[in-house]
Design brief:
The protein has one domain: 3-Layer(aba) Sandwich (Glutaredoxin), CATH 3.40.30. Helices cover 27% and strands 24% of the residues. The protein has 4 helices and 9 strands; from the N terminus they run βββαβαβαββββα. The protein has a 5-stranded mixed sheet. It has a two-stranded antiparallel sheet with strand order 1-2. Strands 6-7 form a two-stranded antiparallel sheet. The longest helix is centred in the middle third of the chain and has 19 residues. It starts with 18 loop residues before the first strand and ends in an 11-residue tail after the last helix.
Length: 169
């Protein structure tokens, strides 16, 4: 396996817990969100064009995510001050967590860290209310993966279907 290859945690794995800064003075733990589905959206960098488009899209789709009972969390290796400026500039209404120090520790746990760039893959995880990954997807870094896969996975959870046995397109 080369240093550039990553292996995202697959459906059926227990999602590794973590606590990361959401603001300069507030932390958020994955375990705080237990009891409802969680979407983890790892992305490479706040101010890149594709990342900006992706996060703005998720902000627009946020009412649908919430209607399906899910909590959305963005994660990158940028710091909290960078996240605060980016979220304010883009009008984002969901937390952006700073996987900043130790750099990329949470991205590593999820198998999506890019060590040569010091960033994460553009990776999505849908975690069920019990903390089990039910869907994961790694998009090419230069492509916005959209929201369809996330919505399909959340709808599968809401319908009590096992997304690990279904093809999610």
């Amino acid at each position: 396996m080369s240093a550039f290859q990553t292996t995202a945690l697959p459906a059926g794995e227990v999602a590794p817990d973590f606590t990361l800064p959401a603001t300069p003075d507030q932390m958020l733990a994955l375990s705080d969100l237990r009891g409802q589905p969680v979407i983890l959206a790892f992305y490479p960098a706040d101010w890149s064009p594709v990342c900006g488009d992706q996060m703005v899209l998720y902000n627009q789709v946020l009412p649908e995510f919430r209607h399906l009972g899910a909590h959305l969390v963005g994660i990158s290796t940028d710091g909290v001050w960078c996240h605060a400026a980016f979220a304010h500039d883009r009008g984002l209404h969901f937390p952006l967590l700073a996987d900043f120090e130790p750099k990329g520790e949470i991205a590593r746990r999820y198998g999506v860290y890019r060590p040569h760039e010091g960033t994460s893959e553009r990776a999505l995880f849908v975690i069920d209310a019990e903390g089990v990954i039910r869907w994961s997807y790694v998009s090419p870094v230069g492509l916005n993966p959209g929201a369809d896969g996330i919505l399909d996975a959340l709808e599968s959870l809401a319908g009590k279907r096992d997304v690990t046995k279904e093809a999610v397109s």
